[in-house]
Design goal:
Layout: E1 4-8, E2 18-22, E3 25-31, E4 37-41, E5 55-57, E6 60-62, E7 69-71, E8 89-94, E9 97-105
Antiparallel strand pairs: 1-9, 2-3, 3-4, 5-6, 6-7, 8-9
Amino acid sequence: MSAQRACSASELEMDTPLRVELDGVAIAIVRDSNDEIHAIGDRCTHGDISLSEGFVEGETLECWAHGSRFSLITGQPLNLPAYEPVPVYVVQIDGDDVLIDPTVLKEV
């Protein structure tokens, strides 16, 4: 499979997650305060909660339900109750398009 358009970069608000679904895979896309765009799995590994409804701080995304924070760079949980990482996807930018292949994970 190849990367497909997930959204436009211009529609991403800083520190505000956007949920997209590509080929049945829910992904949270985040433009962080450093203007970097990240894509991680949208489901908290602790409580199966949508991470795109959570809070961004620096390079982390916090689950709104139980407070687990995940690294936007590695997908690793940074505190309990989550202990399993979420997937992190490769992001490509083509003009204003944010492209993601939901079958290709970022090597961290």
